[in-house]
Design goal:
The structure holds 2 protein chains of 2 kinds. Chain A has 2 helices and 5 strands. Chain A has one domain: Trna Endonuclease, Chain: A, domain 1 (3-Layer(aba) Sandwich). By secondary structure, chain A is an alpha+beta fold. In chain B, helix 2 packs across helix 3. The longest helix of chain B is centred in the C-terminal third of the chain and has 18 residues. Classes of the chains: A alpha+beta, B alpha/beta.
Chain lengths: 121, 484
């Protein structure tokens, strides 16, 4: 499995997880000149921008640690692009991270960090 | 929805009220502070966010803009945390706008919502009193400062939740315990401990009676430092207003919540490695210097000749005007600096010039370069210059007067002086004028020197219990100008 496939797989796991929890998925892999957002979903009336990170081992740190400042800023900019281009700038928003640990294929552990970061440094 | 709360900052030693406006708007979550905040103020975002969350409030999922007005005043310190947190609570509907109407909120938040004390609360509260703020919230650690002010309603709070409860009226305003200034009974050096040196003691008494500057010259170990340390003990205590002013200065300078509640006059003796900024105040975040910390008290420069000349010469203007104006960040800051200067120095590099016991080994060149370390303009401002010789064996047997006896005389002279202020001109006898004129002719005295000598003579007259300056007083005043 290459990294692309791995990413898609984690995203699928996250999508299923969110659907189970009653989120409505708006877009997957939203791309714009500023960057990419893995998942955009609605949690009730709040738009949630989700970054999905997966890891097979903790050798290179936890999955959620990989979302650094630079990545946050990229997601924030892309989110702004999303809101403006979809005419949704009046919505409340939130940034979540879904971290998936999968040491053995098929056995994963999902950690959903609600409001993982804000749009400030 | 815009919420408004008041906070305060300190510029120089003066408090200024700042309006904290909090706006919540739709859009991507974010938290910005505008209005010339310095780093500490900007960092309050992290503290406020954590404190709100850990106090059981939710942090809004909206765009948060905090404006500190007036926008051109530089905001410093961590005292804004509480006001910002309360503003956010109003903006997101937890508190009603009327709850915070006319409130001044001071205090730094810790991550769990506990309030910490901040320096400079005293000037901030006084500014609030001036501007007619009705209610003030102050952290527990600053209770002392709050207890000094009686004109405003002040509530003491220890936690963010506490503050909210008080504002909602669920909890009573906890008023601060009243505090007052007191004379510290610290073991001051007493004048009776100084053996011999009668002439120098007399000069010290005159210096105390007229708040004159004093130079003590003498060989090592003759008691210069000991004598200088006696000066605060023979000065009358601070008045309430003066003590409040001094407490304000210390409240800003020390960076501590603890207040200086003493009626003793400050005595500062900075080391001779002090810098110009250390002496007159300054720095990127301006702090008062030694001259200001000695305001209403004594600035003692031991080994005055070891100070860099540049450091000594910056004292000239504050000594004359009693105030230092510094310009920082486009603002002019005025620090009060009416202190009394006491200099102690050896007469030459080896220390034994003019000594009867030991011979001076300094060369003429060494002597002249040593002399130059105390500049003419500085010495011109030191009215009393006395020579202290080495002690004789017989001096050890005699005890001098204790400080409290001398203080009584000094206080008498002070009282007479404040009574005489109403008279436009101090009376001076014809003989005294004749003595002075002779001296002017003979020694080519500067105009400042003449006016200073007249003032010293007037002080001596008051100590003598007279209300006019006599020839003897003038003659004594003239002897205190060694530089003649």
């Amino acid at each position: 499995m290459n990294s692309r496939q791995k990413g898609d797989r984690y995203e699928l796991i996250a999508t299923r997880y969110l659907c189970r929890r009653g989120y409505k998925i708006l877009t997957r892999q939203y791309r714009c000149p500023y960057g990419e957002i893995d998942l955009v979903a609605m949690d009730g009336k709040v738009i949630v921008f989700v970054e999905v990170k997966g890891r097979q081992s903790t050798r290179y740190g936890l999955a959620q640690e990989a979302v650094d400042r630079r990545k946050q800023r990229r997601i924030w900019r892309s989110a702004q692009h999303f809101l403006w281009s979809q005419g949704k700038s009046q919505y409340l928003c939130r940034f979540d991270v879904i971290a998936i640990q999968e040491p053995i294929l098929g056995q994963h552990e999902i950690q959903h960090i609600v409001g993982a970061f804000d749009g400030w440094d | 929805m815009i919420a408004r709360v008041k906070a305060a900052t300190v510029l120089g030693i003066e408090g200024f009220l700042v309006d904290v406006e909090v706006d919540l708007s739709r859009g991507l979550p974010g938290f910005d502070i505008v209005g010339l905040p310095d780093v500490v103020v900007r960092e309050s975002r992290q503290r406020v966010r954590a404190a709100l969350k850990n106090s059981g409030f939710s942090f809004p999922l909206q765009r948060l803009t905090v404006n500190l007005a007036p926008g051109d005043l530089r905001k410093m310190g961590s005292a804004f945390d509480l006001a910002i947190a309360l503003g956010i609570l109003v903006a997101c509907g937890v508190l009603e706008p009327e709850h915070i109407d006319g409130i001044l909120a001071l205090g730094e938040l810790s991550l769990d919502g506990t309030l910490r004390g901040v320096p400079g609360v005293l000037p901030m509260i006084r500014a609030a009193e001036r501007d007619g703020v009705s209610r003030i919230l102050v952290p527990v650690e600053n209770e002392e400062a709050a207890g000094l002010i009686t004109g405003v309603k002040i509530g003491i709070v220890s936690h963010l939740r506490d503050a909210v409860a008080v504002l909602e009226g669920r909890k009573e305003f906890v008023h601060p315990k009243p505090v007052h200034f007191d004379l510290e009974q610290k073991a001051d050096t007493d004048l009776s401990e100084v053996r011999g040196q009668h002439a120098a003691k007399r000069a010290l008494e005159i210096a105390a009676a007229g708040r004159h500057n004093l130079l003590l010259l003498g060989p090592p170990g003759c008691g210069k430092t000991l004598l200088a340390r006696c000066l605060p003990g023979i000065l009358p205590p601070l008045s309430q207003d003066e003590a409040l002013e001094v407490a304000e200065i210390y409240s800003v300078a020390t960076g501590q919540a603890q207040l200086r509640l003493s009626l003793n006059r400050p005595f500062r003796s900075p080391h001779h490695s002090s810098t110009i900024a250390g002496m007159i105040g300054g720095g990127a975040q301006p702090l008062p210097g030694e001259v200001t910390l000695a305001h209403q008290g004594v600035l003692f420069l031991d080994e005055a000749t070891e100070f860099p000349r540049s450091v000594l010469d910056v004292l000239r203007q504050p000594l004359e005007d009693g105030v230092i104006s510094l310009v920082r960040h486009g603002y002019s800051i005025a620090y009060p600096s009416s202190c009394q200067l006491v200099l102690a120095a050896n007469p030459c590099p080896c220390g034994f010039l003019g000594s009867k016991v030991k011979e001076c080994v300094c060369s003429g060149r060494e002597l002249s370069s040593y002399r130059r370390r105390l500049s003419g303009p500085l010495l011109d401002r030191v009215e009393l210059q006395v020579w202290m010789g080495a002690l004789e064996a017989s001096d050890y047997a005699t005890f001098g007067e204790p400080s409290h006896v001398v203080r009584k005389r000094v206080r008498g002279a002070w009282r007479q002086n404040s009574a005489a202020v109403s008279k436009t001109e101090q009376t001076i006898s014809k003989n005294a004028i004749a003595v002075l004129e002779a001296a002017i002719e003979r020694f080519q005295l500067s105009a400042r020197a003449v006016s200073r000598i007249r003032r010293v003579a007037w002080t001596i007259a008051r100590l003598d219990g007279r209300d006019s300056t006599q020839a003897a007083h003038m003659a004594e005043a003239l002897t205190y100008r060694l530089a003649l």
